TrEMBL record:
Protein name: Cationic amino acid transporter C-terminal domain-containing protein
GO molecular function: L-arginine transmembrane transporter activity
Family from the record: Belongs to the amino acid-polyamine-organocation (APC) superfamily. Cationic amino acid transporter (CAT) (TC 2.A.3.3) family.
Organism per entry: Caenorhabditis angaria
rRNA-binding among keywords: no
Compartment(s) of residence: Cell membrane
GO CC terms: plasma membrane
Main location: membrane
Membrane topology, record value: Multi-pass membrane protein
Length: 572
């Protein structure tokens, strides 16, 4: 096989092989939905809210949450379809592998473990910050006095002090998760129920301190009180808030352990997102109506806000709820992380050691141990804000790829799985398509791939033009026009393809418009991420590609399948 063929070979499922697994199928709809809810509550409310309100969006965080929630919902349609079709542990990785080929699957798969590792590390540090705040900074003071500082620079990449409490906490959580999937799900459901009760209390009690003047007029810095950092801050806040919505992707990693994944994954996806969007907006409103945005504590926003209002009992309840919610988040993240690694290892793209499933617990124990230790080290030494900034890019890339994969899935020449007994016209061009005679000469499937990649490129041009604020000169206007024309013509070409008739228990409605809209939302938020975030991401990606070309491309399960097929004697 040529290198080119190897890079773009696609993962194949034959018959019901996508349902077979060494993992135990024991989770129902509520188990899976609560995995997502638990993973999103801790991250979005207790880690991000204070930081985004204080430094990026102010009270307009409610708009940031709505924007990122809407974008997540658009991506959720695509996740639900793939989760119903291919219920495997790898989520976005598996979907990209099936639709776009091995190299794209690896790129997405390599970002997913990083996404969970950083998410776990950020939440673990926030857990310690809340506990430290509850005990009047005794933990941080003790560590600094007896061990010393890691960094004395504000806003640096390293934390002020080594967080040994968060380190130990992650180890304990991983032990609980390693016991078994059903045990993890039951533990998670208990925390979710407790946390939702606390959130309802916090919202109602916090609104008793509501001061609506904090949302109107001009503050002492000459800024609009509701939107102090303008629309650029709102969009940047939405990009950061995407960290809060990685929970429904954690849900899709449970596809290999759901009892009836074809039904469970779509229902759990939309149910969890609906609950979370309502909770985020309510909590953001409550916080920003209590105290001015510039007085919000970025690390322990709600407990500090209640303390400022003299509500000591509410502060204690809030802190306990925050600790339970973030512990909830840690359980679900620790559940999803080793399964995303297991999926890649099981396919042979990373070391097979991580594909081992323990015979007693039926969990990927090796992946759990190694990646928990790596995450614990991240937690020990890195700064919370630096971790959060790095996280969203992996989430947005995964969501973008899944939306693009739905377009490819629907307009391929044939269904990607062997579920129909007849050939249809999927992938063929409709009669009205301009230059049909020339486009039809391309190899099968190339025209839809060209259309999708051109659509993404057009979106990038539009987003860069807006981000760089160059619309006040002729060059910027021309560039914007090029992006708009390229995007519209690409979308028209996608519509000009016949959709295949493959059956599925759930399909994204209004294709190609919903995936295309999800793509532009994700691309805009990626462009608005900070430059250093992109640099760090490129370094991580380079490490992954080194592993893939040194190991994965030769040990891929798909490569072995092709070799076996080619070695079989021809039937006479």
């Amino acid at each position: 096989m040529t290198i080119w063929t190897s890079l773009f070979r696609r993962k194949q499922f034959r018959g019901d092989t996508h349902l077979t697994s060494e993992l135990k199928r024991c989770l129902n709809v509520f188990d899976v939905m609560f995995i997502a809810v638990g993973h999103m509550i801790g991250a979005g409310i207790y880690v991000l809210t204070g930081q985004v309100v204080h430094s990026e969006a102010g009270p307009a965080i409610i708009i940031s949450f709505l924007l990122s929630g809407f974008a997540a919902l658009l991506s959720a349609f695509s996740y639900a379809e793939f989760g119903a079709r291919f219920p495997r542990a790898g989520s976005a990785y598996t979907y990209s592998y099936v639709a776009m080929g091995e190299i794209w699957g690896f790129i997405v798969g390599w970002t997913v473990p990083l996404e969970y590792m950083i998410g776990l590390a950020a939440v673990a540090r926030a857990w310690t910050a809340y506990l430290d705040n509850l005990v009047n900074k005794r933990i941080s003071t003790f560590i600094i006095d007896n061990i010393g500082h890691l960094s004395t620079t504000e806003g640096g990449f390293f934390a002020k002090y080594p967080d040994f409490v968060a380190f130990i906490l992650l180890i304990l959580v991983s032990i609980a998760v390693a016991i078994g999937s059903k045990f993890s799900a039951n533990l998670n459901s208990s925390f979710v129920t407790l946390n939702i009760a606390v959130i309802i209390f916090v919202v109602i009690y916090g609104l008793t301190f509501a001061d609506f003047s904090l949302w109107s007029g001009i503050d002492e810095f000459g800024r609009d009180r509701f939107m102090p950092y303008g629309w650029a801050g709102v969009i940047q806040g939405a990009a950061s808030c995407f960290f809060a919505f990685i929970g429904f992707e954690a849900l899709s990693t449970a596809g290999e352990e759901a009892r009836n994944p074809h039904r469970t994954i779509p229902l759990a996806t939309f149910g969890s997102l609906s609950i979370i969007i309502v909770l985020y907006v309510a909590m953001g409103s409550s916080l920003t109506l209590m105290i001015p945005y510039n007085q919000v504590d970025p690390e322990a926003a709600f407990s500090a806000a209640f303390e400022a209002k003299g509500a000591t009992v509410a502060k204690i309840i809030m802190s306990i709820g925050a600790l339970a919610g973030m512990l909830n988040n840690l359980v679900t993240g620790a559940f999803a992380l080793p399964r995303s690694v297991y999926a890649m290892a099981d396919d042979g793209l990373i070391f097979g050691f991580f594909a081992k499933v323990n015979s007693k617990t039926k969990t990927p124990l090796n992946a759990t141990i190694v990646f928990t230790l790596l995450t614990a080290i991240l937690t020990l030494i890195f700064d919370l804000n630096a971790l959060v900034e790095f996280l969203s890019i992996g989430t947005l890339l995964a969501y973008s790829m899944v939306s693009a994969c739905v377009l490819l899935l629907r307009y391929q020449a044939e269904p990607l799985e062997e579920e129909s007994q007849h050939k249809d016209n999927g992938g063929q061009l409709k009669s009205w398509v301009p230059f049909k005679a020339y486009i039809s000469k391309l190899p099968a499937g190339y025209s839809i791939k060209l259309a999708v990649f051109s659509l993404i490129f057009g979106y990038v041009i539009i987003a860069l033009t807006v981000r760089l604020q160059i619309l006040d000169n002729i060059g910027g206007i021309v560039l914007l026009a090029v992006g708009v024309i390229l995007s519209l013509s690409s979308l028209i070409l996608i519509i000009g393809h016949e959709e295949n008739q493959a059956k599925a228990t759930y399909k994204v409605p209004f294709v190609p418009f919903i995936p295309a809209l999800g793509l532009i939302c994700n691309v805009f938020m990626m462009i608005y991420l900070k430059f250093m975030t992109w640099i760090r991401f490129i370094v991580w990606l380079a490490i992954g590609l080194f592993i893939y070309f040194g190991y994965g491309i030769r040990h891929s399960k798909e490569a072995r399948s092709v070799k076996i097929e080619n070695s079989k004697p021809e039937q006479k």
